[in-house]
Amino acid sequence: MVVHTAISQIMATVQYSAPADLPADDAFTFMTSASDLAALLPGAKTVRTEHASRQFTWDDGGALRVLDRGANQCEIEISVDTERDAEQVRQELAEAVAALAHKASAARDEAEGEAHGPGGGWA
């Protein structure tokens, strides 16, 4: 007699959020044009953009939202449904949010420098 046992993985929603020192519209605009966005989002192959809610969604229950927290502040929230180890996934989400916030800030700083012309606006 052969006995087969199945181990069922439990699906969990893992969330992470972090503040970023830039306006929500700037962060979202950067993310919509980031060519490597899907590569930074765990489990994302095809990313759908929802401009009205400043949100991205992808297969496997993934979502990223950019929330307005004031003039030059936003919060980046990300969540995924997964059967993988929650702490490992949370770490991946933290890394994704940090990378996106850093790249968006750098792009904004570069754009502001170009707007001020040579010398970056320094007198």
Quick structural overview:
The protein is α+β, with helices and mostly antiparallel strands and 123 residues long.
Q: How many domains, in number, for the residues?
A: 1
CATH topology name: Alpha-D-Glucose-1,6-Bisphosphate, Chain A, domain 4
In percent terms, what proportion of residues is strand?
25-35%
State the assembly state of the protein chains: single chain
Structural class: alpha+beta
The overall pLDDT, averaged over residues, is 85
Estimated radius of gyration? 18 Å
**Beta strands, count:** 5
**Secondary structure tally, helices:** 3
The CATH architecture name reads: 2-Layer Sandwich
**CATH homologous superfamily descriptor:** START domain
Low-confidence stretches: none
End-to-end gap = 85 Å
Order of helices and strands: EHHEEEEH
